[in-house]
Design brief:
single chain, 276 residues, alpha/beta, L-arginine/glycine Amidinotransferase, Chain A, three-stranded mixed sheet, 25% helix, globular
Length: 276
């Protein structure tokens, strides 16, 4: 595909400001409770990410932060929407449980969403990705650390889209969105070693032209990106990943999210895509 064919599509996103963001507990390998978060810097970086998305022509809705939920800034984890249907989240750890309720309240009051509450543990877009133009529209779903594999079958029933289960095997990449990202409506990038050998074979079969990342890309949270089909928003540490997406015909846009990385997240974690 030539560079001229990489066309952006206007998106709608949901973000939540890090007004109460701290690292009070450690539920992933990146969280260090001994290092203080610079709250002012975190908010400044978040605002820069929001402004970047708006400047690129996208709509950004803002979910009000709630006291006592320091990880709420990672709004991608709160639900997963496809064609107006929302499959709600159910968090693995009790510290984050109430975030799911805040997200449900947003969908219940914002437009004509059909919200379905889950029975099984899942962490929204943290472990689900949607490719509307691949194979008629498929969902890629991660499991191994956070999301219960039974949630994949539940999501398929709720959303009416084929769900491909992918097993994550490296604790450093505990959510699908730390190991794989959609670059547009049919193409992905991923770090193969984050997945089981069988899942790697599945990905290679489905996406023979994928952009393959290495461990340095993944550790820089270079796969925790947001793309509109042309512009790929990455954190400033992900230099190698930026080169890879540029070589594939996309336009990298780097944003500093160093404070949010302290909680184990980057660009994608902070941005939920709304698919009405």
């Amino acid at each position: 595909m030539s560079h001229l064919e990489r066309l952006p599509r206007k998106r709608a996103y949901l973000m939540c400001p890090p007004e109460h963001f701290t690292v009070e507990y450690a539920i992933n390998p990146w969280m260090d409770t001994t290092v203080a978060v610079d709250a002012g810097q975190a908010l400044k970086q978040w605002e820069s990410l929001r402004a970047t998305l708006i400047d690129l022509g996208h709509v950004v809705h803002v979910l009000d932060a709630r006291p006592g939920l320091p990880d709420m800034v990672y709004s991608a984890n709160g639900a997963f929407s496809v064609d107006g249907t929302v499959y709600g989240a159910r968090f693995r750890y009790p510290q984050r449980a109430d975030e799911a309720l805040a997200h449900r309240a947003f969908y219940d009051t914002a437009g004509s969403w059909r919200f379905v509450a889950p029975e099984h543990v899942n962490e929204g877009e943290g472990d689900f990705a949607y490719l509307p133009a691949a194979y008629g529209g498929i969902v890629l779903a991660g499991y191994g650390f956070r999301t219960d594999p039974a949630a994949h079958a539940e999501a398929q029933e709720v959303l009416g889209r084929p769900v491909i289960s992918l097993r994550l095997i490296d604790p450093a990449f505990y959510h699908l969105d730390t190991a794989l990202a959609a670059l547009d409506d049919r193409h992905v990038t991923y770090y193969p070693e984050a997945f089981s050998p069988a899942s790697r074979r599945v990905l290679a079969q489905l996406f023979p032209d994928a952009v393959l990342a290495d461990r340095a890309d993944a550790e820089a949270f270079g796969l925790n990106l947001v793309s509109d089909g042309r512009h790929v928003i990455l954190n400033t540490d992900a230099i190698g990943m930026g080169r890879k997406v540029r070589d594939a015909g996309y336009q990298p846009v780097h944003v500093d999210l160093s404070e949010l990385k302290r909680g184990g997240g980057s660009v994608k974690c902070a941005v939920a895509e709304l698919r009405p």
